[in-house]
Design a protein that fits this description.
Number of strands: 3
Order of helices and strands: HEHEEH
Oligomer: single chain
Radius of gyration: 16 Å
CATH architecture: 3-Layer(aba) Sandwich
Largest sheet: 3 strands, parallel
Helix content: 25-40%
Number of domains: 1
CATH topology: Rossmann fold
CATH superfamily: Glucose-6-phosphate isomerase like protein, domain 1
Shape: globular
Strand content: 5-15%
Number of helices: 3
Length: 129
Amino acid sequence: MKLKELAYIHAEGFAAGELKHGPIALIEPGQPVFVVVPSPHGRHSVHSKVVSNIQEVRARGAKTITVAEEGDEAVTEFSEEVFFVPETQPLLMPLLTTVPLQIFACALAAEKGYDVDQPRNLAKSVTVE
């Protein structure tokens, strides 16, 4: 959402399991794809499936930018850039992985010359009648 709000770039998020049900058809050479990789230490980890997704989008020419847990070396060989977050409890991981994505969106918007403190066409408060 921050890429849309601040940098005015169309972006969508998909669950890793949905990649082969349509989104992969949209991948074009050079397209940046962000991937949030779950911890490889979970009891029901889908880590290997997400790494496989990274390989599939790379095979189609995408540039992959991943957010992964510190020490997860399995993603480094398949990613152009990796933002590492500290290892934490699985329920807290979404909080940590959101931070580098939001910082990236803010930095990109600033690089494009947009005022990140006053995005256009967004209300600062919600008014409902």
